[in-house]
Amino acid sequence: MTEIFPVPQNDFEQLRRPRTLKMSEQVARQTVDYIIANGLGPGTRLPVESELGKLLGIGRNTLREALRLLEAWGVIEIRQGRNGGAVVRRPEPVDLRGPLTVQLLFGGAAMEDILEIRLMLEPETAYLAAQKMPEAKAIELENAIERMRSVSSGTHDAFIRENKNFHAVIAEHAGNIIARSVIESIEAVFDGTAQGVGYDDSRRELVSNAHARIAEAIRQKDPERAREEMRLHLQEVDEYWAEHRGLMTKRVAWPQ
Description:
- It is a single chain.
- By secondary structure, the chain is mostly helical.
- Helices cover 62% and strands 3% of the residues.
- The protein has eleven helices and two strands, in the order H-H-H-H-E-E-H-H-H-H-H-H-H.
- A two-stranded antiparallel sheet has the order 1-2.
- Helix 6 runs parallel beside helix 10, helix 6 packs antiparallel against helix 11 and helix 7 runs antiparallel to helix 10.
- The chain starts with 11 loop residues before the first helix and ends in a 13-residue tail after the last helix.
């Protein structure tokens, strides 16, 4: 029989109360607000710990806990060595890699869940990108395709990297930061390699050709066609993965 941890009756009211932020979290939030309000760019060095603690009026342990939070959020980088310390960086979607993976692992997500959300979002981002992407970035898409073709007989990692870059450029220029963050986070975590998906030369050529059709539609400012080409591309990926050792129902795993 499962034993339930006893909770005294008079503690239930306390459990219902909103959580009061710890001092370290308050400091971390205020630091984020300060960095944004003052336009501190990546590479800006924060004061050393002793000086920062005095400025904020907090103890060493509280400060270090706040810095760890900021580092986990992707707001700062803690550098070691003589010129080390806390340096401002810009949070990127890839920073969600760990938390997203853990959440999906606990939720029992399968590869079909990954493709379903991509089919919901990416055709629409292609539609928006065809409306908003500058000519120079449309050319960047074509350059990514050329690099994919150049590694068609090369390493699998190089092909996957260029594949992710192609989708990331489209997501970046769709003009919606939420869609971009979700798509890039998913791309950063799950490309199929951890589940055993491989791409031979013929498959790589099919993917490159699909990307070329999407890029052409975006460059020609044809949103409807861009949306449809992306939808067809992802449906093809869906069908390929489904045929590839029954991966669609396989649970997601830690990325390699």
